[in-house]
From TrEMBL, chains A, B:
Organism: Rhodoferax sediminis
Boundaries of every NAD-dependent epimerase/dehydratase domain copy: 3-215
Gene Ontology terms, MF aspect: oxidoreductase activity
PANTHER family, A to Z: ADP-L-GLYCERO-D-MANNO-HEPTOSE-6-EPIMERASE, NUCLEOSIDE-DIPHOSPHATE-SUGAR EPIMERASE
Lineage of producing organism: Bacteria, Pseudomonadati, Pseudomonadota, Betaproteobacteria, Burkholderiales
Gene3D superfamilies: NAD(P)-binding Rossmann-like Domain, UDP-galactose 4-epimerase, domain 1
Protein's UniProt name: NAD-dependent epimerase/dehydratase family protein
TM stretches of this protein: none
Coiled coil: none
InterPro entries on file: DenD (IPR050005), Epimerase_deHydtase (IPR001509), NAD(P)-bd_dom_sf (IPR036291)
Keyword NADP annotated: yes
Domain of life of the organism encoding this protein: Bacteria
SUPFAM superfamilies the record matches: NAD(P)-binding Rossmann-fold domains
Amino acid sequence: MNIVITGGAGFLGARLARTLLQQGQLSLAGAAPQPITRLTLVDRVAPATDLMADARVTAAVGDLNELLKPDRAQTGAIPSDAAIIFHLAAAVSGECEADFDLGMRSNLDATRALLEACRALGSAPTVVFASSLAVFGDSPGQPAPPVLTDMTLPTPQTSYGIQKFIGEQLMADYGRKGFIRARNVRLMTVSVRPGKPNGAASSFFSGMIREPLAGVKAPCPVPPDTAVALSSPGRTVKGLIRAAEASDADWGPRTAINLPALTTTVGEMAAALERVAGKAASALIDWTPDPVIRKIVATWPANVNAARARELGLLPDDSFEAIIREYARENPQAVTLALRP
Amino acid sequence: MNIVITGGAGFLGARLARTLLQQGQLSLAGAAPQPITRLTLVDRVAPATDLMADARVTAAVGDLNELLKPDRAQTGAIPSDAAIIFHLAAAVSGECEADFDLGMRSNLDATRALLEACRALGSAPTVVFASSLAVFGDSPGQPAPPVLTDMTLPTPQTSYGIQKFIGEQLMADYGRKGFIRARNVRLMTVSVRPGKPNGAASSFFSGMIREPLAGVKAPCPVPPDTAVALSSPGRTVKGLIRAAEASDADWGPRTAINLPALTTTVGEMAAALERVAGKAASALIDWTPDPVIRKIVATWPANVNAARARELGLLPDDSFEAIIREYARENPQAVTLALRP
């Protein structure tokens, strides 16, 4: 089985790739497990060396919109035997808000081109689309309901959220037409991400933990009572794989499912950091407000009811403290402070 | 004030044009009424001669996607002084289901090109987008709720419905960004339309009344108990104009509003026809089922709660019999049977 991951050099894509290579097989849509013979990682940059060292891994490096132009044979982004495509590549929320055309190109045009490339295969491959909690939006004239379910009408208040929601619609129709098997999955805010800050407005949700653990100051640009719906990298990847493995009957309708979320506040996140690594860590959080980021984050509701995900056996993380300890365990080289037991 | 109507040679566009020319002025978004100095009708064919005879009318004739290519100066589809654009042009539901690419081009690409042309003006013109009841869809795995409100999550079960719902999302974001003033309006099934059948799956909702009144047989391809949410041409045009005239505060959120609907069944429609024109008329309805049309129509729920429209003073038609009589009054040349008082 050949599996494609767009955004395969990104943090989540690489983690998904490593998990898939490690498990070595996948039960596509409820069928018997098949060995993963090839993993095609599509991204602007080459995958990490550990991934490239695996004989099953192929890279398609370049601009996604260029790679997906109809004469695909040259680029190999969507190989003719692709059985599953995890579509994670996207411009992030902050970028899309700052540069409208970039967001439309990277998120809307690229998703449509990807779906066209999948349709052209004629084999109705399974597409798992990484949508986002950011489809939900809270605005003064239209407050989001207190709890968001799988059937809540999204009212996105960012271009990123609009583009993701449009992606869900395209997915649903390409699925209904039989061009693909559609799996729309809404990711929660992923924390703690290793590595460096990115252009996402949500980047600080990881940075405010990751940087202090490395002894480095980091901004938290929103007030302590800001609520957030979080998921660890591990649970997020689990959700993506479950989407590919679920049978059509277990999956249900082609509308998106919310992945499970741990609802907490940035104040509680800072307190958990202090429990794990002491005041030396929490004192490194810089609480200077950033009105631009605050405005974006404030539109993302935090209370998510993930009923369909629960039925698929997907559960939220136990606690944010557990998430921090998991991060520290997985990234020992990035933690310089001493941790409390 | 220069007003643009795409689909301006179509039935609804032409009726909107005549209504606007007759009233002569418009209160744009709650401002003081201004005279309508120019009406630009954009369509693949030239507008009717009565419209072209009005000195205020200009035509832009051609393929909409071609007319909207960035070098607009040559075509005049979106003049630099356009204050309001009523975007009615679309490929209809039956066409889009039969030809996926046609629908994507005519409904998604053209709407996006229109919004880009409006954004390029720099004047944030008001765009009234004719969305549709067809965004709602009933599917075996995801039945629509018994009553559809303005906040119901649409789950379109046709490509046309998906494309209209995506149009609503684009409208909302172009509005939020300040590129346009966005007015998303969901039209109900319009009946009785004069003229000829078209490719819409809903075409028979007019034909089953219009043709018998002219002494001609007409198909009703769905069972008598099929429910439908209807609006007369007059009420529909009223809703479009109200959308342009409502102030931002009166209008509310950028999500779409449902226009008011008279909920009835095709059996009741046939009975109303019999009350108006006797058995001579109702006997001309051919009840031979068409499974393709039935399948599409069956996904359109019929119980619509149009709360926002009601707050704007928009109400459904009184009865289907009143709609038939209005049609007969407005189109005496198309009625050959004697009507009962």
